[in-house]
Design brief:
Radius of gyration: 22 Å
Number of helices: 15
Distance between the termini: 28 Å
Oligomer: single chain
Length: about 500
C-alpha cells in the first residue's frame, strides 16, 4: 500500500491529524493495533450500560471558546453535549466542607471570595492570571516550540510555586487545586502553564457527552473515510524501515507493508524508539533520553451500574479529598485508603431524572499492578482481583457520604487499573496523562512534534499538553509541522 500519510495509532490525536490531512486532499491511512478506536476516549458496554474509560468532561466548549472553535472545525459540535451546572460544575470536598466551583470567571471570583473573604485580593490575582491564560490559548500555542524553552515561559515556571506565592491560605490553596486529579499534580515538576490552562478551560464552561466519548472517535473516523482516508484496525506497526536514507516503509503485523511520504506517531515516545530504533536517525543518546522519561500516575476506576430509580442524576462532578494535602494524592499507594475520589455521573437519556451509572476514580501507581504485568485479561491472579475489589469498596464507602444511598444502589461494578489501560488503550504503564513534564528540565521532558527522522512526526498527549483541548491543539502543531505551515486554524484548509 502506498499513501501520502501513515498514522500510527487511532487515539484522539491520531484521528484528528488524519481528519485534517485527509480533508486537505492527502491519501491517509490510520493503523491501530487494537480493535477499538479512540485510545483513552474509548467507551465500553456491559449489560446494556455504556461506560467511559478516560473521557468524563471537557472545558471551553461554549460558543467562541477554544475547544468549541476546534471542535467546530472537526465537525464535533453536533454530538449530544450536556452543559454542566453553571453555579457549580464541580464540587470540591475538602476538610469535610463542600466548595462549589462555578462557570465563568466573574462568578468564580465571587464564589471563592464568599468562601474566603480574607483572601479577596489574592483570588483576584489568581483568577486574573488564569483568565489571561484562557483567553490567550491560541496565542500561546502559536508561540509554541522553542519559545517554551525560554526562562520566561509559563512552561518553565512551577505551578506549585506560583500557587503558594500568590495564595497564602493553605485551605484555599487546596480548594483551588482540588479539581486537579485530571492532571498530574507534582510540587517539584508540574509546569505552571499545564496547571493554569487546564483549570482555566473548565472555568470557562464544562460539558459532558451523553452516550460516551467514543462518539468523538466514531465521528472523526466517519469523516476521515468520507474524505477518502482509510482506517485499519488490528494493525500493529512493528518496525519503521529506512530505504536509501529515507524512512518510508512501515511493517505491519498481519498486513502488507505501507509506504508513506509522511509518518505520524500517535504513540508513546518509548514505543516509537522500539519500532524506529534500527534506523540511522535514532541515535543512542536519543534512545537513552526517551527510555528514561518518567510517566505520570494511572487511574483506578470503579464503573458502577445503578439500580433503577435510586440515585438522581447530578449535573456536576464531586471531588472528595481524604487528605490535608491535595498535591500529594498522586503518590498514594494501593495499600492505603484512597486520598481522593472523583465522582462522575453518566448522562442519562433525555428527560430522565435518575442516573444509570456513576464512575469513581482515584490515582493509582503502576508499581501497584506491575507484579501482574504480562498476565492476560480475565486470567489475572486472584491477588489482582482482590486488590480491585478492595479498592472499589473503599471508593464506594468514601463516595457514599456525598452521594447518599450509593452503597445500597449498586447493581454491579466493573473495575480497571493502569494495567487495564495499558492492555486496552496501549498507554505506556497505563499512565492517565502520559509523560511527566518537568519545568526544571523542559528541554528533556517537553517534546515537540519533530522526531529525529525528518519525515516522522509526533502527536498526542505525550507532547506539550494532555487532555482533550491539549491533544486537539497538538494535532494542529503536528499537521503544521508536517505541512511546513504556521500553526493555527488555517491548517484545516478551506
Amino acid at each position: 500500500m502506498k499513501v501520502d500519510v501513515a498514522i500510527i495509532g487511532a487515539g484522539l490525536g491520531g484521528l484528528q491529524c488524519a481528519y485534517i490531512l485527509a480533508k486537505r486532499g492527502m491519501k491517509v491511512v490510520v493503523l491501530e493495533k487494537n480493535h477499538l478506536l479512540g485510545g483513552c476516549i474509548q467507551t465500553f458496554a456491559r449489560r446494556g450500560q455504556k461506560f467511559d474509560t478516560g473521557f468524563h468532561y471537557v472545558g471551553g466548549l461554549d460558543d467562541g471558546q477554544p475547544l468549541n472553535m476546534l471542535f467546530r472545525k472537526f465537525g464535533l459540535m453536533d454530538l449530544p453535549w450536556q452543559r454542566l451546572d453553571s453555579d457549580g460544575f464541580d464540587v470540591v470536598v475538602y476538610g469535610g466542607r463542600s466548595y462549589m466551583v462555578p462557570s465563568g470567571f466573574d462568578r468564580f471570583r465571587e464564589k471563592m471570595k464568599g468562601y474566603f473573604p480574607g483572601s479577596s485580593a489574592e483570588i483576584d490575582t489568581y483568577s486574573g492570571f488564569l483568565e489571561h491564560v484562557a483567553t490567550d490559548i491560541f496565542g500561546s500555542f502559536e508561540r509554541a516550540g522553542e519559545a517554551n524553552m525560554q526562562e520566561d515561559s509559563l512552561f518553565s515556571r512551577g505551578a506549585y510555586d506560583f500557587l503558594t506565592s500568590t495564595v497564602h491560605n493553605p485551605t484555599l490553596q487546596n480548594v483551588l487545586s482540588g479539581t486537579s486529579p485530571k492532571l498530574t499534580l507534582q510540587k517539584e515538576t508540574l509546569p505552571l502553564y499545564t496547571f493554569a490552562q487546564i483549570n482555566a478551560s473548565f472555568i470557562l464552561s464544562a460539558y459532558r457527552l451523553r452516550g460516551g466519548g467514543m462518539q468523538v472517535a466514531e465521528s472523526l473516523a466517519e469523516s476521515i473515510r468520507k474524505f477518502g482516508g482509510e482506517i485499519i484496525r488490528d494493525a500493529e506497526v512493528t518496525r519503521l524501515v529506512e530505504n536509501n536514507g529515507v524512512v518510508d516503509t512501515l511493517e505491519v503485523a498481519g498486513h502488507e507493508p505501507v509506504d508513506a511520504k509522511i509518518i505520524i506517531a500517535d504513540i508513546h515516545p518509548s514505543q516509537f524508539v522500539r519500532i524506529a530504533g534500527e534506523t540511522s536517525f535514532v541515535r543512542k543518546i536519543y534512545k537513552k533520553r526517551i527510555l528514561g522519561l518518567q510517566n505520570g500516575f494511572g487511574m483506578f476506576t470503579a464503573n458502577i451500574a445503578l439500580k433503577p430509580n435510586k440515585i438522581k442524576y447530578l449535573n456536576r462532578n464531586i471531588y472528595i479529598h481524604n487528605t490535608d494535602d491535595v498535591w500529594s494524592e498522586g503518590q498514594q499507594t494501593a495499600a492505603e485508603m484512597p486520598r481522593c475520589c472523583l465522582v462522575s455521573f453518566g448522562v442519562p437519556g433525555v428527560g430522565e431524572e435518575y442516573a444509570t451509572n456513576i464512575d469513581l476514580l482515584t490515582p493509582m501507581q503502576w508499581a501497584d499492578v506491575e507484579p501482574f504485568a504480562g498476565t492476560r485479561v480475565m486470567q489475572r491472579p486472584e491477588a489482582y482481583n482482590e486488590l480491585k475489589e478492595r479498592k472499589a469498596a473503599q471508593l464506594i464507602d468514601l463516595a457514599d457520604s456525598y452521594v447518599p444511598g450509593l452503597k445500597d444502589s449498586v447493581e454491579y461494578v466493573y473495575t480497571s487499573t493502569p494495567l487495564t489501560y495499558a492492555d486496552y488503550t496501549g498507554t505506556e504503564q497505563g499512565s492517565a496523562y502520559g509523560v511527566n513534564k518537568d519545568y526544571n528540565r523542559l528541554a528533556y521532558t517537553l517534546l515537540t512534534p519533530m522526531s529525529p527522522i525528518p519525515n516522522v512526526f509526533f502527536t498526542g498527549q505525550n507532547l506539550s499538553l494532555h487532555g482533550i483541548l491539549g491533544v486537539s491543539m497538538t494535532s494542529l502543531f503536528t499537521c503544521a509541522a508536517a505541512l511546513k505551515e504556521k500553526p493555527g486554524l488555517d491548517v484545516f484548509g478551506a
